[in-house]
UniProtKB/TrEMBL annotation:
Occurrences of domain Dihydroxy-acid/6-phosphogluconate dehydratase N-terminal (ranges): 37-347
PANTHER family linked to this entry: HYPOTHETICAL DIHYDROXY-ACID DEHYDRATASE (EUROFUNG)-RELATED, HYPOTHETICAL DIHYDROXYACID DEHYDRATASE (EUROFUNG)-RELATED
This enzyme's EC code(s): 4.2.1.9
Domain of life: Bacteria
Name by which UniProt lists this protein: Dihydroxy-acid dehydratase
Pfam families xrefs: ILV_EDD_C, ILVD_EDD_N
Keyword RNA-binding tagged: no
Keywords linked to the UniProt accession: 2Fe-2S, Amino-acid biosynthesis, Branched-chain amino acid biosynthesis, Iron, Iron-sulfur, Lyase, Metal-binding
Similarity comment: family membership: Belongs to the IlvD/Edd family.
InterPro entries found in the cross-reference section: Dihydro-acid_dehy_C, DiOHA_6PGluconate_deHydtase_CS, ILV_EDD_C, ILV_EDD_N, IlvD/EDD_N, Sugar_Degrad_Dehydratases
Start and end residues of each Dihydroxy-acid/6-phosphogluconate dehydratase C-terminal domain: 358-554
Amino acid sequence: MAAELRSAEWYSGDDRNAYIHRAWMRRGLPGSAFTGRPHIAIANTASDLTPCNAHLGELASSVRDGIHEAGGIALNLPVVSLGETQLRPTAMLWRNMAAMATEEMLRGNPVDGVVLLGGCDKTIPALLMAAASVDLPAAVVPGGPMLTGTFRGRPLGCGTDVWRLSEEVRGGTLDREDFARSESAMIRSRGHCNTMGTASTMAIMAEALGTVLPGLAGTPAPDSRLLESAHETGRLVTDLVARDRRPSTVLSRASFHNAIVALAATGGSTNAVVHLLAIAGRLGIELTLDDFDRIGSRVPLLVNLQPAGKYLMEDFHRAGGLLPVLREVRDLLDPTALTITGKPLTDHLDGARSWDSDVIHRRSEPVQAEAGIAVLRGNLAPDGAIIKPAAASPHLLRHRGRAVVFDSIEDFHARIDDPDLDVDADSVLVLRGCGPKGYPGMPEVSNMPLPSKLLAEGVRDMVRVCDGRMSGTAYGTVVLHVAPEAAAGGPLALVRTGDPVVLDAAARRIDLDVPESELRARTPNRATLDGFASPRRGWERLYVDHVGQADTGADLDFLRGSSGSKVSRESH
Ligand code: FES
Ligand code: MG
């Protein structure tokens, strides 16, 4: 038994090296720890600077109890943590770094399996990318959303209501004192954002992929049942090790098919597109941007959650969570996709039911008949761009307007509220220099605030086009992830203020109505191409030199694929 475990390559035998590996671990571990018991890392993204994940230490103790109960050895492994609200210029700049560091630490250490503790936006994607590339038995425990906070009797959705309230301040319908007062009401408890933003979405994606105990994703962070599930996951991972059930044997193209259906049915974040593409890239699974449109865009939206709808994650959990949603669209799922339980995902749907049909709708009465992500192409986005029709204004989904171009977010902020800015409700706001290379890091700035003079007139949405991302908690008619980005030489760099831009979401088009000959004659604005994107050293240098475009997941070229868990050389 001992020789079959990966950790036994470190610990078994009576030579000097095995002595060294064992002896230093004797700080706390008994001799029996090295006699064939699986060593399970708890990759923990807890950090005071990632407030959404600050509570994961408690979750880790429940995982630890479960691992011990099943005869394993639990080992806390703090890993790079990314706090969405704190990190500048954007947490996304380090998603790939967090994934790389976690992958390397799992490979370099004597562990047989891993429990992945994440929550805030980029943490679960980074952990899954790492687990896929090191290919050790792994399960995710999502840290869970916050409880619903209320302000003056009204529930506040994290993120979504920040955008809404700040627009009200700019539009003059909310004063600054009340705005400040709402701050402490929004974050009511431990946990991540309570809207169907990126964190909730990625927890649900992890479950739909089969890497989470079915039924767990969406359990609120303070809920006792989360601790119970964490305990159960600890047990389960020791079993995954015994059965040698690895990401490469659990995850398949069918898993991603199901994740895309779940993304559409729950109205999940557009950020899931880049994250799922990146995870698939680590597994060598052929997944393209067009798969999101092909598989997802006919799926009905069944979940009535902010930012597209009304409720919050606590309501979603109360109504039954992901499984009853998937049960409604069971015929659209691929029944061959497995989960870490060893059973197909669809086998876990039988007993699932919705306890509140206003939160989780029946298939016969969907929130929207067709949801998901629309993938647009055209001379503005030859490699694709996306829009989330469910979060857009229906009357703007087919639109022609004059471009108002901004070369950076700083340029945008400097001019957007200028009363002399030549902009009206029909204009199309174009922001560039916000892609993976251009910012760098592809920040969530695409949902540009509207000009205050138009807000004062009552305008609440405009067509916006950008090579960046938008927060999963945001809404609006926003064309994002334009590829190639301006800084990589995409045609977005050629747009000039006044050019007619044509959006036709139904036809899946985003075009600049300027003759090709004229476009060819234009030279891109150097400010756009150079921008901030010439870092001299460090991670940013490595990132800008190697990052791919949004349509392939914005991973680094040399991180795609897997290296497995084998380490051939000793350390001494
Ligand atoms: Fe962490 Fe929203 S800021 S999940
Ligand atoms: Mg975010």
